[in-house]
TrEMBL record, chain A:
Listed InterPro entries: Asp_carbamoyltransf_reg_N (IPR020545), Asp_carbamoylTrfase_reg (IPR002801), Asp_carbamoyltrfase_reg_C (IPR020542), Asp_carbatrfase_reg_C_sf (IPR036792), Asp_carbatrfase_reg_N_sf (IPR036793)
Swiss-Prot/TrEMBL keywords: Metal-binding, Pyrimidine biosynthesis, Zinc
Superkingdom field: Archaea
Protein name: Aspartate carbamoyltransferase regulatory chain
Species in which this protein is naturally found: Sulfurisphaera javensis
The family this protein is said to belong to: Belongs to the PyrI family.
Cofactor binding mode and count: Binds 1 zinc ion per subunit.
TrEMBL record, chain B:
Gene Ontology MF terms: amino acid binding; aspartate carbamoyltransferase activity
PANTHER family: ASPARTATE CARBAMOYLTRANSFERASE, ORNITHINE CARBAMOYLTRANSFERASE, MITOCHONDRIAL
Pfam families xrefs: OTCace (PF00185), OTCace_N (PF02729)
Pathway assigned in UniProt: Pyrimidine metabolism; UMP biosynthesis via de novo pathway; (S)-dihydroorotate from bicarbonate: step 2/3
Subunit composition and interactions: Heterooligomer of catalytic and regulatory chains.
Name of this protein: Aspartate carbamoyltransferase
UniProt family annotation: Belongs to the aspartate/ornithine carbamoyltransferase superfamily. ATCase family.
Domain (Aspartate/ornithine carbamoyltransferase Asp/Orn-binding) ranges: 147-291
Catalytic activity: carbamoyl phosphate + L-aspartate = N-carbamoyl-L-aspartate + phosphate + H(+)
Residues that coordinate or bind L-aspartate: K78, R160, R219
Limits of the Aspartate/ornithine carbamoyltransferase carbamoyl-P binding domain: 2-139
EC number per UniProt: 2.1.3.2
Biological processes per GO annotation: 'de novo' pyrimidine nucleobase biosynthetic process; 'de novo' UMP biosynthetic process; amino acid metabolic process
Lineage: Archaea, Thermoproteota, Thermoprotei, Sulfolobales, Sulfolobaceae
Amino acid sequence: MEAVNKRELIVSKIKNGTVIDHIPAGRALAVLRILKITEGYRIALVMNVESKKMGKKDIVKIENKEVDEKEANLITLIAPTATINIIRDYEVVEKKKLKVPEVVKGLLKCTNLTCITNNDIEAVSEFRKISEKPLKMKCVYCDTVIDENEILKQILGSKS
Amino acid sequence: MRDIISSYDFSKSDFEEIFELADKFRNISPPKILKEKTVALAFFEPSTRTYLSFNKASINLGASVIGFSGEEGISVAKGENLADTIRMLNNYADIIVIRHKFDGAAKFASEVSEKPIINAGDGKHEHPTQTVIDLYTVYKNFGDIDNLTFGIMGDLRYARVVNSLLRGLTRFKPKLVYLISPPQLSARKEILEELNYPYKEVNDYNEVIEEVDVLYVTRIQKERFPDESEYEKVKESYIVDSTLVSKMKKDSIVLHALPRVNEISREVDKTPQAKYFEQASYAVPIRMAIFHKVIGE
Ligand SMILES: [Zn+2]
């Protein structure tokens, strides 16, 4: 958090929680969406700050919530560069290693309109990773493959 | 075995055991292994042939059969969600055979069901028991499935029998598989990427017809097309007639899962290559053998 420390007026340190840094600029809100964080948490969002490595980046701080392994891995789908630090008593106690998840349940929509997951209220979508670079995931019900562009489009919304 | 959703659910030895059992069941009267058991035939999408052959196979093994098909099946499909229908059938049946218009319906049903599910066709996805029938016919005619050249022709994109057959062949060692289709109906990439044997995509069957041992012809189904104008463009791309068959090897065979529309002309029926009626005759013994595997293990 090199450059950011000099700009503490933007966001102060948190006592307990999670700091997600190095998010590609503009994707902080999508990160919150992936973590299904809507209300109840104190959150600090910093968007479009300078970064030596990335040019511009976003940062998200969430108070009193430690992001778990599964949640951390989901972040790779839209922010593979992100770093996740767990904070306890103002100290970084853990840096999460990000891995593209093997299985993504309920988050992504199958692009095949006649897939059962698009046609039965109880059927929940499920995708399995088939390759990481390039990112490709396959619907376990109908075998439709979705790629990185489709995943970004779905999570970030049509504007990206 | 428990559920049969995909032809990947069969190992090579499963295929071989089913072939052996089917041989046996064609000659002797089979043991009534489904006595006091109930088979539910849940056909949300109509299919007379498949329904009848599962029905007959169940009865031959001593089962009682309950179920629905045709218009009745369509109205059940419209009435409640699939999961609720499966829960209801779980109360009555020991095995559920499902045919449904949506891709992945059988897998979803298997997650809800406490009883084994057999996929009798789900959308454009898979139809694994048909593949066992197809491969058994090949085996009966050649004594083997390995080292043969296959030509799979027609709609390779929306035909579920093709997905299941391509996957079933991964359990064997075909010499070469020609995928013969117009570009709009070429096989799905995600299926091709999984295959462990050599295949080649071609548009013109004349290039390969002389090499083929097994010509597998598929019906081009209007209802699978997202767009009707696409269907109109390709509906009669490939017709197997006696001229085409005359170019084929003497001991080659022509297969088709039936029913056909006009992709195989009737004059071909009398040629020695025509094996699709023989193939259809294996439906009951093969499905008996499959029930045996599902219930017997
Ligand atoms: Zn799907």
